[in-house]
Amino acid sequence: MKQEKILVIGAFGQLGTELVPALRTLYGEANVIASDVREPSSMNAIQGPFVSFDVLDKKSLETIVRRHHIAQIYLLAAMLSATGEQFPTKAWDLNMQSLINVLEVAKDQHLNRVFWPSSIAVFGKSSPKKDCPQDGPFDPTTVYGISKIAGEHWCNYYYEKYGVDVRSIRYPGLISYTAMPGGGTTDYAVDIFHQALAKNEYTCFLRHDSALPMMYMPDAVRATLELMEAPAYLIKNRHSYNIAGVSFTPAELAEAIRTYLPDFTISYRPDSRQSIADSWPDSIDDTAAFRDWGWEARYGISAMTREMLQHLAARYP
Ligand code: AKB
After folding, report:
1. How far apart are CA 247 and CA 75, in angstroms?
2. Rounded to an integer, what is the distance from CA 54 to the centroid of its chain?
3. Closest of 194, 225, 219 to residue 300, by C-alpha
4. In angstroms, rounded to a whole number, what is the distance separating the alpha carbons of residues 76 and 73?
5. What CA–CA distance (Å, rounded) separates 24 from 315?
6. pLDDT value, residue 42
7. H-run or E-run covering 151
8. Where is the NAD-dependent epimerase/dehydratase domain (predicted)?
9. What's the average model confidence in pLDDT over 267-287?
């Protein structure tokens, strides 16, 4: 078992909920410290080491890293695209200052590695819709996307200037059955499964034909660990890597759900999230991730739909 100590910031989020157990399998429970600004509750029951603190408080971060001899940080705390549009300056402050704090601590305390998530939100209207390339163009339309493209430059800067081994992935919409996403444009693709099982119907906040890049959580967790466990010489890109999972429209996802729930119906009432979705690519080119560290997705829409419905069925008897 690997022995380094890891701090996961934002452990109660959609990705953190699944990444903490996966890291504990690799590194041992005692070596992975989960943290969040929220205290654990019945909603966020967590086993193993946990600290509650605000990543915007740099002094607390420094103290925790020193006290626990942390060697790696996964910074997962962020405000997502849709909520970020409601609170633009708050989104900018949280998404940027958290990253700067972590990069500074990584530099000063000589951490071995940092992980920071970017997003397909770095792309915009001038980016190709199909198989959107690794190198842009980038013209984000949301504060979240602006913070992600700026953050990518900060990561590269700390790598080039100070040698901080920071690695990043541009996640598509993540789909999981353990935790709900919060405040994103791709959230419908999780909610639809819950509503299909609870009510056999769903009203989607995007149009029927809005194709978006998505990924089933087991693929996302594996991608993250594969990137972080790869030897440093393989990581040629210190901004962030495109990774592709599966792309589909709400109508296509509804059709896949109907394989198991034939009476399921969907209606469409697009809201302000539609214009965000319209600015993002339909699908992603991830040849750089494949070439550099061997990334390949395993889940398509059918296997993902089957597993999501199987796992969630017990919650909606
Ligand atoms: C969002 O919808 O904001 C996120 C993302 C694609 O980064 N899921």
Report:
1. 26
2. 19
3. 219
4. 9
5. 26
6. 67
7. helix 143-162
8. 6-244
9. 98
Please check the confidence at residue 46 and state whether its pLDDT lies above 80: no
Burial class (CB in 10 A: 0-12, 13-18, 19+), 43: exposed
pTM of the predicted model over 0.95: yes
- 217 token code pair: 């959580």
Per the annotation, the verdict on 157 as an active-site residue is no
Q: List, in sequence order, every residue forming a beta bridge with 50; answer none if it has no partner.
A: 34
Return the ∠ at Cα 305 (arms to 299 and 311), rounded to 5°: 105
- Residue 133: asked if its preceding bond is cis (omega within 30°), the reply is no
Rg (CA), the chain: 19
- State the virtual CA torsion across 98, 57, 181, 222 in degrees, nearest 10: 60
Chain position carrying tokens 């109508």: 251
Task: Give residue 134's identity as a one-letter amino acid code.
Answer: Q
Q: How many CB atoms lie within 10 A of CB 67?
A: 10
Task: State yes or no: pLDDT of 119 exceeds 90.
Answer: yes
**Looking at this protein, which amino acid is placed at residue 100?**
I
Instruction: Assign residue 272 a region (left: φ > 0; alpha: ψ between -120 and 50; beta: otherwise).
Output: alpha
Q: Average pLDDT in the 46-65 region? A: 95
Q: Is the CB of 147 under 6 A from ligand 1?
A: no
Q: Which atom of ligand 1 is nearest to the CA of 280?
A: 6
Tell whether ligand 1 has an atom less than 6 A from the beta carbon of residue 283: no
CA-closest residue to ligand 1 atom 8 = 173
> Per residue in 20-44, pLDDT tens?
999 999 999 999 999 999 988 766 7
Q: What is the DSSP string of 175-194?
A: E-SSS---S-SSTHHHHHHH
Q: Which atom of ligand 1 is nearest to the CA of 144?
A: 3
Longest dimension (CA), the chain: 58
Q: Are 27 and 70 in contact (CB under 8 A)?
A: no
